[in-house]
Specification:
Helices cover about 40% and strands about 10% of the residues. By secondary structure, the chain is an alpha/beta fold. It binds 6-O-phosphono-beta-D-galactopyranose. 6-O-phosphono-beta-D-galactopyranose binds next to loops.
Length: about 475
């Protein structure tokens, strides 16, 4: 048996991409509510608040807010051991600054969590997944301002206390390293493209590190059994050729991302990080005690997302897309319709790199294939391409556990049910085992139906990853 007993199989979603009900039961506006729809070629626009006449796909999502029972029951039918979802901060604190939480918002998560538990599913909660309250953007430019630390902790405290006996697994910030690539999504910030850009971004990252570390400490005080993790986008990189200059570039590219995990796992900034500040003239403002806070708030595990790999070159040519990062074409790999280069071996490398570096438990909290699905005349959806993608990734993940000794707690596929794409705002970019009748213009009945991959994943879970056929 490769996967340990109790391995946490499941799926992952984010509130803003699935819940909809954007202004229901006292919910405030989040940054995701101000993101228009884009597509593979057009970036989503981050508008000044919600602008009349524009289309915002996250406002309705897949209406998980009203379908959560049915959806969780479908996950249970597949045998899910865990369900990763995020809490929308704006359901709990609509502007982020209230002193008392919004009871109606909390009641929704009470119901979601209870439904999971009633179905034998362990909730895995992301506290902040690209859904900072928009008011905080307007007032403070969100994470650029240290004020957010205090507000975030108020929000964490409410969740930790309310769910201390129901939720064991937590993640503080989704893809924390994405703040350097998309500071609007990951940090709720508007950042001009000028010489202040890096300073603003890395100062904001420092605030998130401090907030996360304080949350870890607080969480452990509330319940010592909590497992609180960090979450980042792991970008497997290869040098484009065996030219040592390309290999050096590869190392540097990875360093950009390890900057984040080093602080959250080890509890301090590495000498290399400090050199990075010096080279770029950054002055990271710290308060007294911050270093101690980081040391005391080391995470219990690393959650990461993995979709595709990237190439690093000293003389980069034409770029193609990948999750958040542009990269160059790898002739050995095939790309998805959205240009993401599928690379299952890259997942095994990611697991090895992370485990060798840190020796803390790992959790693959996002992996999957965004693809266009066709509903056949008889209503079936034969998504063999998705099955193939997942099969190959589960296989290399198994090798990492069985042959390389990696300690892995679980695997949650991204989007077990179709949902709005974070990158493009599209519905047609589907990840689910469950199809949702909803299109890019907001039409559709929200009806759920099972794809071919539904039965396949059910079997994978039932055999604890032994039968991948
Ligand atoms: C990750 C995000 C998710 C998710 C996923 C797929 O970066 O954490 O929120 O959406 O990528 O990306 P996309 O939705 O752009 O296809």
């Amino acid at each position: 048996m490769a996967f340990p007993k109790g391995f946490l199989w499941g799926g992952a979603v984010a509130a803003n991409q699935c819940e909809g009900a954007w202004n229901v039961d006292g919910k405030g506006i989040s940054i995701a509510d101000c993101m228009t729809a884009g597509d593979v070629n057009t970036e989503r626009e981050f508008t000044e608040g919600v602008v009349k006449g524009k289309y915002y796909p996250n406002h309705e999502g897949i209406d998980f807010y009203h379908h959560y029972k049915e959806d969780i029951q479908l996950f249970a039918e597949m045998g899910f051991k865990t369900f990763r979802f995020s809490v929308a901060w704006t359901r709990i604190f609509p502007t982020g600054e209230e002193l008392e939480p919004n009871e109606a918002g909390l009641r929704f998560y009470d119901a979601v969590i209870d439904e999971c538990l009633a179905n034998g599913i362990e909730p895995l909660v992301t506290i902040s997944h690209y859904e900072t309250p928009y008011s905080l953007t307007e007032k403070y430019n969100a994470w650029e301002n240290r004020k957010l630390v205090e507000l975030f902790l108020r929000y964490c405290q409410v969740l930790f206390e309310r769910y201390k006996d129901k939720v064991k697994y937590w993640l503080t910030f989704n893809e924390i390293n994405v703040i350097m690539l998309r500071p609007s999504m990951a940090g709720g910030m508007r950042v001009p493209n000028d010489e202040t850009r890096l300073q603003r971004i890395y100062q904001a990252a420092h605030h998130e590190f401090v907030a996360s570390a304080k949350a870890v400490k607080m969480g452990h005080e509330i319940n010592p059994d909590f497992k609180i993790g960090m979450m980042f986008l792991y970008p497997t990189f290869y040098g484009a050729t065996c030219d040592p200059r390309d290999q050096l570039e590869c190392m540097k590219k990875l360093d950009d991302h390890y900057y984040f995990s080093d602080v959250q796992v080890r509890g301090y900034y590495s000498p290399k990080a400090k050199e990075f500040w010096r080279r770029n003239g950054l002055q990271i403002r710290m308060e007294e005690g911050d270093e101690e806070v980081l040391r005391e708030g080391k995470v219990d595990y690393i959650g990461f997302s993995y979709y595709n790999s990237n190439l690093a070159s000293a003389d980069p040519g034409e770029q193609i897309s990948g999750n958040m990062l542009g990269t160059i074409k790898n002739p050995y790999l095939k790309a998805s319709e959205w240009g993401w280069q599928t690379d299952p071996i890259g997942l095994r490398i990611a697991l090895n790199n992370l485990y060798d570096r840190y020796q803390v438990p790992l959790f693959v909290v996002e992996n999957g294939l965004g693809a266009r699905d066709t509903v056949e005349e008889d209503g079936t959806i034969r998504d063999d391409y998705r099955i193939e993608y997942l099969r190959q990734h589960i296989l290399t993940m198994k090798q990492a556990v069985e042959e390389d000794g990696v300690e892995l707690w679980g695997y949650t596929t991204w989007g077990p049910i179709d949902l709005v794409s974070a990158g493009t705002g599209e519905m047609r970019k589907r990840y689910g085992f469950i199809y949702v009748d909803r299109d890019d213009s907001g039409n559709g009945s929200y009806r759920r139906s099972k794809k071919k991959s539904f039965e396949w994943y059910k079997k994978v879970i039932a055999t604890n990853g032994e039968d991948l056929t």
